[in-house]
Amino acid sequence: xxxRELTYREAINEALRQEMRRDDTIILMGEDIxxxxxxxxxxxxxxxxxxxxxxxxxxxxxxxxxxxTPISESGYIGAAIGAAATGLRPVAELMFVGFMxxxxxxLFNQAAKLRYMFGGKARVPVTIRTMIGAGLRxxxxxxxxxxSVLTHFPGLKCVAPSSAYDAKGLLIAAIxxxxxxxxxxxxxxxxxxxxxxxxxxxxxxxxxxxKREGRDVTLVAFAKMVHTALAAADELSKSGIQxxxxxxxxxxxxxxxxxxxxxxxTHRLVVVDEDTPRCGMATDIVSLVSQKAFxxxxxxxxxxxxxxxxxxxxxxxEDSYLPTPEQVADAVRGTLD
Amino acid sequence: MHLKREKALWVYERMVLIRKFEDKVHDLxxxxxxxxFVHLYAGEEAVAVGVCAHxxxxxxxxxxxxxxxxxxxxxxxxxxxxxxxxxxxxxxxxGKGGSMHIADVEKGMLGANGxxxxxxxxxxxxxxxxxxxxxxxxxxxxxxxxxxSQGTFHEALNLASIWKLPVIFVCENNLYAEAxxxxxxxNVENVADRAAGYGVPGVIADGMSFFDVYEKAGEAVRRxxxxxxxxxxxxxxxxxxxHFEGDPxxxxxxxxxxxxxxxxxxxxxxxxxxxxxxxxxxxxxKIEKETQAEVDAALEFAESSPFPKLEEILTDVYVNYP
Lengths: 337, 322
Known about the structure:
Shape of chain A: globular
Helix content of chain B: 40-55%
Radius of gyration of chain A: 20 Å
CATH topology of the largest domain in chain A: Rossmann fold
CATH architecture of chain B: 3-Layer(aba) Sandwich
Largest sheet of chain B: 5 strands, parallel
Number of helices of chain B: 11
Strand content of chain A: 15-25%
CATH topology of chain B: Rossmann fold
Shape of chain B: globular
Number of helices of chain A: 12
Strand content of chain B: 5-15%
Largest sheet of chain A: 7 strands, mixed
Number of domains of chain B: 1
Number of strands of chain B: 7
Number of strands of chain A: 14
CATH architecture of the largest domain in chain A: 3-Layer(aba) Sandwich
Order of helices and strands of chain A: EHEHEHEHHEHEHEEEEHEEHEHEHH
Oligomer: heterodimer
């Protein structure tokens, strides 16, 4: 029998459903994660989130555990954090990561710091699901990835799956984790299918995955850029260049070992990231490799990222904003010259 | 509202303990013995104690940068607090939080908070926990007149109102947000007036009178425990010291300060309980001596405690970080 395939969207929904069945301290909160709350029954669970990721969970678990919130990010993200500190295990949805601009205080001054400020006498087991990424013509405020910002803060963990399999396992790991975890869902990946086991499983936080093995160059890529890197690797293989694609999956904690081992084997590094180039994951990985594997490098590390600009709206501009497989292949060839 | 003798003893003991603690901290800070930013609660004792007199250990509260009074009213040990102010390993937070972040989650004290308005959403979360777990725990959210201008206050009041959360929002209006008077920062006469915008009761209490706060908080706590939703209480009060220690307090008139000093909430309580013959002068004297001894012992404990080991800098960031 063929392995069951799920979309990235379905895998996230299944992870939430299975975890909520297992643990009744898990609640969901967010804007229109059900839709139609307070309406007659036939009008409830109308949306299941703006892109349908949480569809059906309100119907199964009810209004006590699936809470539509007002458009009030500081209020409900903060409430999720307060609930986590007092015994629940909330999963809050921040519809688009750009909205962290509205509630950043609750994320980085409260969630991230409570445990440390309280001398270890608090746990904040909250998961914040949020949509990232460009490619849907959603313009500057609804298209960023911004995970580098969240990775920067001690006290937060941050993950960004690139496949349906990873999405399910990482979300279950995030929910069960006793620290605050930001779970970044790339909205251009919701339709991506991959084999996903029906049973519950965990992809441990802080474990990278080698999505493709190769000997000539290490491509480190995140979320949707993993697919861009894989497309570049396909192209390069036609000219005999074998690229290894490393997907860290987890930005914080970061599996440094897998990245360093790969570079020690290939002697070349190209980082492909959808975040803007300054102070981002790409500079972070280049810095890591430069400090800890410098003697293994045969060429300067390269970064393929968008420019240092907001995300543009016009389709021609947005397409040129995002890294392409061709740009990645060119960067790789540059390290081989 | 009737107060039993045992509760009256507790109230006086907590109020005097707060005052003596804060007076001592004031002296220590002036002498250069305490580092950092310190905001004293002296003058506002009736508010924290008037609310917490209705509380159980398993009820919650969120606090502010001016949090020592809330801690003591909720039963946090003063020797741990004093050690925390000194940055000692034996502090409530192992010396990692300091004055603005004292917390004792076991006692339901969810932290002083260095961000004005930062605690209001957290309070809704604690109340949500009670609702989901179907307990009758109540959460108090203390904030100041400054916090009443933060979006988080409005968002939290809205959330609590639509979900009928068991929260008591307690605005300690001490007339000044840092150095700015409320008549400049608010275009309404009372913070309590804002409750109408959220369809919840807005109640004004005399924050210099324990009995008035106690009575009004009593009804709010009853409502919350009964599942009737939040209440906004505005306690009109006054801080006897500046915004922070080191504040020259050159923005408020001296006659105003003197007038409020004459309305000292501890003196007010003392006079009333003596007049009602609820407590005797001996009871009060005994408490005054005991609380002074407790503060002195706390100081000795703090001064003789070790500083944290340097490797402590790396612990408690995460529960687990591979």
